[in-house]
Amino acid sequence: MMDVSGNLIGDNGTQYLANVLQNNATLTQLNLEGNPGSCCSAVSAGIQVRNDKTITKMDLHGKSNDDIGMKFLTDALINNETLTTLELRNNQIKDEGAKYLADLFKINRTLATLDLRGNQIGDQGAQYFIDALKTNTNLRYLNLETNKSRFCAAITKIHESLLWKHQPHLYLDCHGIGDSVIEYISLLIPASEEIRHIRLPSNKISDTGAQYLATAIKQSTTIIDLDLRSNDIGDEGAYHLADALKYNQTLSTLKLRGNKIGPIGKQYLEDVQQIRTMGHSFFFYFLKTIFNNFIQTPIEFDLSGAIKLLCPQDHHLKLCDYEQRKRNNTHQYPVSEYGCDTCLRGCRGLSWHCSCTSRGFDICETCSNRQN
After folding, report:
1. Measured in whole angstroms, how far is the alpha carbon of residue 160 from the centre of its chain?
2. Could you tell me if 89 and 118 are in contact, meaning their C-beta atoms sit under 8 angstroms apart?
3. What is the mean pLDDT of residues 128-144?
4. PANTHER family, alphabetically (predicted)?
5. Alpha-carbon torsion (34, 36, 37, 42), positive or negative
6. Domains in the chain, please, with CATH?
7. 190-236, pLDDT tens digit by residue?
8. Is the Cα dihedral 342, 344, 350, 352 positive or negative?
9. Does position 252 have pLDDT exceeding 60, yes or no?
10. 277-311 tens-digit pLDDT
11. 67-77 and 11-20 helices cross at what angle (nearest 10)?
12. Residue 351 C-alpha from the chain's centroid
């Protein structure tokens, strides 16, 4: 053991020690407590986990570790085959530190639990994790809540629903996650035996994201309903979804209201709906009883009314939650409740919203359904 605690060793001094001890294979404890360097605990932990092959869990929460500390720690874990749990919540890890951790996942297949709550990871850091997780499915528990990016909360929910708790639902309303995260979700859906209900409204999903989901739908044997309202899906995306529904046997509800699907895309969907709605006849139920694995469930689409959902300035409305509702395109609503401009009642939850006016414009989901 080397004890240099209670001194004035800063980041530079800590780095000198790390460099000197880089090839040391016998030191298992380096005590740097009480020094001002922000990466002291990470360097100590890195040396310990590199040389002590019995450690399976490491707790570094609340140690003020920053991005430099993550560089030391991840270098030590590249070839580690014993550590399965790493606790890093409430530190000072930002996007660069997230990149070091994400790069580690591409190599290390032993680490299964990582807690990064309460750090400062932004959109770019979240993207680093998504890219790494597409190739590493061994990391079963990943918690990124209470970071700077909403993507981090989304990644946590994805892991919770599809890999950790194996829940029957995945609800990601209004996270704006985009096609890259949708690609990751689509990779996990076919392997899930529990997932039934997926909600992805207002997530900036384009035709590319719709194609990713279509591939997952083709392979899924469990999913029942999929909510893709208020995204950016056009005719090409509608084509891919319609094609997938020719093969899928379980999906019965697909919500696409508020996308950019035109007459051509709508026809693609109506054609496959007609094929699958043959089930309203007695003959269908007779066949389904005998050939259950080969007869598809009738499907219901929510397409109607999208073009009618306009504000008084003729702007298309987007499905929004409390954090997305704004006034004059800048000021967030002061409370979570909003007033519906159709029924004039106070409402909570999602609304079809436009932020172009001084008070904002909202239609509740109940009133929007009446406008079909």
Report:
1. 10
2. yes
3. 91
4. RAN GTPASE-ACTIVATING PROTEIN 1
5. positive
6. 199-303 (3.80.10.10), 308-370 (no CATH)
7. 999 999 999 999 999 999 999 999 999 999 999 999 999 999 999 99
8. positive
9. yes
10. 765 454 445 555 554 444 567 777 776 544 458 89
11. 10
12. 22
User: Which whole-number Å values give the CA distances from 8 to 29, 68, 70, 97, 279, in the listed order?
Assistant: 19, 18, 21, 24, 76
Residue 169 DSSP SS3: strand
**What's the pTM?**
0.86
Give the C-alpha distances (Å, rounded to integers) separating 189 from 5, 62, 168, 181. Answer: 49, 35, 11, 13
Say how many C-beta atoms besides its own lie within 10 A of residue 106's C-beta: 14
**What type of residue is 30?**
L
Length of the chain: 372
Cα–Cα nearest to 150, from 185, 174, 116, 182: 174
CA distances from 84 to 40, 115, 264 (A): 22, 12, 51
Query: Can you tell me which residue has the tokens 């709550």?
Result: 117
- Answer left, alpha or beta for residue 233, where phi above 0 means left and psi between -120 and 50 means alpha: beta
CA-nearest of 95, 119, 43, 51 to 74 is 43
Strands annotated E in 75-112: 85-87
Residue 286's pLDDT is 54
* pLDDT tens per residue, range 18-70: 788 877 888 888 888 888 888 888 989 988 888 888 999 999 999 999 999 99
